[in-house]
Predict the structure.
Amino acid sequence: MRLGASRFVAGETLDTAVAAIRRLNEKGLAASATLLGEYVSDESQVEQVVAEHEAIMRRLARERLDANIGFKLTNVGLSIGEALALKNADRLARLGEELSMRLRIDMEESFTVDPTLRIYRALLLGGRQDIEIALQSYLRRTEADLRALLPLHPKVRLVKGAYLEPPEVAFPDKQDVDTAYLRLLELSLGPKAYVCVATHDDRMIERALALARERAVPLTGFEFQMLYGIRSSRQVELARAGHRVLISVPFGPEWYPYLMRRLAERPANLLFFIANYFRR
Ligand SMILES: Cc1cc2nc3c(=O)[nH]c(=O)nc-3n(C[C@H](O)[C@H](O)[C@H](O)COP(=O)(O)OP(=O)(O)OC[C@H]3O[C@@H](n4cnc5c(N)ncnc54)[C@H](O)[C@@H]3O)c2cc1C
């Protein structure tokens, strides 16, 4: 952590995440705690992870923080079976309702998209409302997925996509990923969906702001989201302009793969990491 991971990861424990979330709340930013970890494939471990998520939710509520949780379905049963993931996601959603806390479901590798969308639909059709699903603009299929979700009045988090995918399923060219992102914004921002504009890219942010103005979408009709430690001053600037800005706060002992994805996205981060190493 001392090497530089702490810029992107709040810490290894829930206490460190709570402290980071409190600091964000003090700056007018909402937050979402994300316990790091991927592909839990042992049933007793899955139960442990679900119980940990429940404990996180209760703690955030007890501390009266403006915060919710984000999680990956492969951590709560999808690596074992879809039925188990649905049962556990519904269990978390029930607690979310009790605590008035939104659940944010991440989107993972492309082979998980179908079961993830089926689970999201099942939750909504089962009456769970305050659930957000991520959609990745780099996937060729995503526009069709978004169109299919719109009649359900979804809460969609638009992201570009963070995994290495083959060209058959994802646009290899960044330009196409960006164009697709703008297209998803056009399709969804407004009364049909609650859109979470999850990006650090000013072009996307500016387009969302312009669309919201053109379509008279109220400030409560969409939000911005960014990752902990990335473009912190822009986060505060948007919040000061009256927007809801939510920061995803990753924490936990399994921070290494997350950090590697952030470094791969932006080589400048690697320089930051190395500089910290020599500064120790
Ligand atoms: C709240 C949130 C939730 C997410 N959830 C998911 C998910 O469920 N599934 C998924 O696949 N992906 C998810 N992502 C990650 C996302 O897919 C991208 O990998 C990531 O956000 C980088 O893309 P970008 O939109 O910021 O644009 P980019 O085109 O990557 O970057 C635009 C500009 O933003 C700045 N920037 C971007 N990344 C960094 C960085 N790491 N460090 C410093 N500056 C940077 C730079 O100035 C850059 O020029 C999420 C991202 C956010 C913000």
User: Anything to note?
Assistant: The longest strand covers residues 245-251.
